[in-house]
Amino acid sequence: MAIRYDGRVALVTGSGRGLGRSHARFLASRGALVVVNDMGSEVDGTGRSDEVADQVVEDIRAAGGEAVADYHDVATTDGAIGAVETTMDAYDKIDIVVNNAGILRDRTLAKLAPDDFDAVVAGHLSSSAYVTHAAWPYLRDRSYGRVVFTTSAAGLYGNFGQANYAAAKMALVGLMNTLALEGEPRNVRVNTIAPVAATRMTEPLMTPEVLSAMVAEYVTPVVGWFCSEDCSANGVVVEAGAGHFALVEVMEGAGYTFTDPGSVSPDDIAAHWGEIADMSAARPFADANSAVGKVLAAHQSAKAD
Ligand SMILES: NC(=O)c1ccc[n+]([C@@H]2O[C@H](COP(=O)([O-])OP(=O)(O)OC[C@H]3O[C@@H](n4cnc5c(N)ncnc54)[C@H](O)[C@@H]3O)[C@@H](O)[C@H]2O)c1
Question: Could you tell me the distance, in angstroms and rounded to a whole number, from the CA of residue 43 to the centre of ligand 1?
């Protein structure tokens, strides 16, 4: 049986173009009632156009699907609440939130104005937090929710000239890690994609060959899986692009433990750097307590030796 979303209500932010449009159309094509949120801005977040969301709603309806438009700027608290209100007014519930909206103001840190830092953090991190926060009571009350965040390789690994964007994108992983724990008891699952796709954001950087491989629709299947009722994943990041899908994890090495913590000098760190930086036995942790538990266990076992 193909995965479907019949009767499920999905709010997809920034879905007037690019990746969000692909996610919205796909969810609608499999039965979801979709709220197409888009403020219709330029890549840098300036300017507004209702037509961008309207066009996607028109496309979805023309294909036999069900959708309404929402034009709020979700990077503001009022806008995020407004987008969730549009959803509740239209369909009286919310099951799926795909946090996709975002902007770029690329500069090296040396040239980055604080306003450009704040706008990009608001566009990605605050928008995702505000929209999810506004939707959260409705998801919890009905003990059902599928939430997706959108991070980036720039955040996971760094990218020259994208300090603001990288900071916001990696922060989303931290937000997801905690919401996955807080949502789990109420069947609210929170996962993240790290997409690679040819959109207006990336087209200027891509060769024609790369462009043809990086179709936005090629990313959407993993969003479809994260939004499905049967999705078993919770709190994971998946890189997705050009038909390639891979789990990304934060890992910690086995490390090195000094017997007498009070006597450790920077020289000792230098002497043991090979063991401290050895990732051959690296592993992820389910939550912060587990990671802290590893530190304590290592301390106790070093003392006992
Ligand atoms: N394209 C890629 O390769 C790539 C890679 C990594 C991450 N991403 C992320 O994927 C998401 C979608 O990017 P895209 O490439 O499709 O970009 P895009 O510019 O084509 O589409 C983004 C849409 O979001 C809307 N938008 C922006 N801020 C908004 C806000 N505050 N409120 C409402 N609407 C808003 C814009 O009007 C635009 O239509 C972004 O979060 C981006 O950072 C994209």
Answer: 8
Own/partner contacts of 269-278, CB < 8 Å, gap of 24 or more, are 277/253, 278/253, 278/254
In a domain, 103, yes or no: yes
Identify the three-state secondary structure at position 251.
Answer: coil
Q: Tell which atom from ligand 1 comes closest to the C-alpha of 150.
A: 41
Q: Which of 201, 215, 238, 244 for a ligand 1 pocket mutation test, highest count of atoms within 8 Å of Cβ? A: 201
Residue that is last in its domain, among 227, 248, 269: 248
Handedness of CA 50, 76, 182, 252 (dihedral sign): positive
* pTM of the shown model: 0.98
Number of domains in the chain: 2
Same domain, 270 and 161: no
Q: Is 253 among the domain residues?
A: no
- C-alpha–C-alpha distance, residues 116 and 175, integer Å: 22
Do 224 and 269 belong together in one domain? no
Tokens of 177: 């890690």
5 in active site? no
The active-site residue out of 91, 144, 165, 218 is 165
Per-residue pLDDT of the chain (305 residues; tens, 9 = 90+): 899 999 999 999 999 999 999 999 999 999 999 999 999 999 999 999 999 999 999 999 999 999 999 999 999 999 999 999 999 999 999 999 999 999 999 999 999 999 999 999 999 999 999 999 999 999 999 999 999 999 999 999 999 999 999 999 999 999 999 999 999 999 999 999 999 999 999 988 889 898 899 999 999 999 999 999 999 999 999 999 999 999 999 999 999 999 999 999 999 999 999 999 999 999 999 999 999 999 999 999 999 98
